[in-house]
Amino acid sequence: MEILKTKADMQAWSKNKKKQSRTLCFVPTMGYLHQGHVSLMEKGRPLCDELVLSIFVNPTQFGPNEDLSSYPSNIENDLLLAEKAGVTAVFLPHKKDMYPEHFQTEIKLQSLPRHLCGKFRPVHFAGVATVVTKLFNIVMPDMAVFGMKDYQQLQIIRQLVLDLDLDIRILAGEIIREKDGLAMSSRNAYLSEAQRASALSLSRSLDLARELVAKGEKSSALLRSKIEALIHSFPETEVEYISFCRPETLEEIEVIETKVLLALAVKVGKTRLIDNVLINPGR
Ligand code: PAF
Are 237 and 215 in contact (CB under 8 A)? Predict the structure, then answer.
């Protein structure tokens, strides 16, 4: 497994592989890898000749009061997991190489970032879209894998690739959960034991909604109020949003008659957690 620390080295590596007609799959991450990331690497591994992982805590996707300075990191363990998952190159760029002085370009989508997390994290998706576009240009992959836990991010990347005519296939990786249902996230590391128990309110809400929709409930207002009550029955929780929306556009749905995305953001203590599920009322 090669470790490449500059854009120039990464690009040269990719160009060389392409010259040899090797296909490249890419998994971009911010590190502190867990089984969720491993599953993205495992999804990509058999599909291409080379598997590239990037680890870069992208400053432009964090707002001023967010957790950029405390974002967890364990590069040594990340490299072990990457090697085990069959990664052939790790791109570990430095902030100054990614954002040199006088950097001034931003990629902004129009409507997808206005929904869900974008309402509460106004700079987040422009930061994500910009860094992912840069990473695509540096790594030059044939395909890239993104996790469905960040569903809005996945939709934004799919749209970006379409709008900018990027010749990259985007694959979606399933949400990976702990045995008790908690969606895996690097931010789970911030939770105390008591908060870890309250964090289960998210996956329990998804189960509740699935059950009620299966029994015929169609009103998102009613479902939202039941979910809110469930979440707030767990200590230290504060709902940021509960949204029933169209899976493609993320626009809110009032009456659930077709496939819907239920997406949640909840603060548990100071930690902001997200989760989601696609619900098909026909099933
Ligand atoms: O999902 C993430 O870890 C990040 O948002 C990404 C895609 C690596 C961009 O910084």
Answer: no
* Ligand 1 center from residue 218 Cα (angstroms): 34
Q: pLDDT for 17-40, tens place per residue?
A: 999 999 999 999 999 999 999 999
Pair 256, 213: CB distance under 8 Å: yes
Pick the CATH number of 186-275 from 3.40.50.280, 3.40.50.1390, 3.30.1300.10, 1.10.3720.10: 3.30.1300.10
Pick the CATH number of 2-173 from 3.80.10.10, 3.40.50.620, 2.30.280.20, 3.90.79.10: 3.40.50.620
Q: Would you state the structure tokens that stand for residue 196, as one six-digit string?
A: 């870890």
pLDDT at 283 over 70: no
Which residues are CB-neighbours of 44 under 8 A, at least 6 positions away?
25, 26, 27, 51, 143, 144, 145, 171
Confirm whether 37 is a catalytic residue.
yes
Among 34, 37, 115, 124, which one carries the catalytic annotation? 37
Strands 260-268, 237-245: pairing is: antiparallel
pTM: 0.97
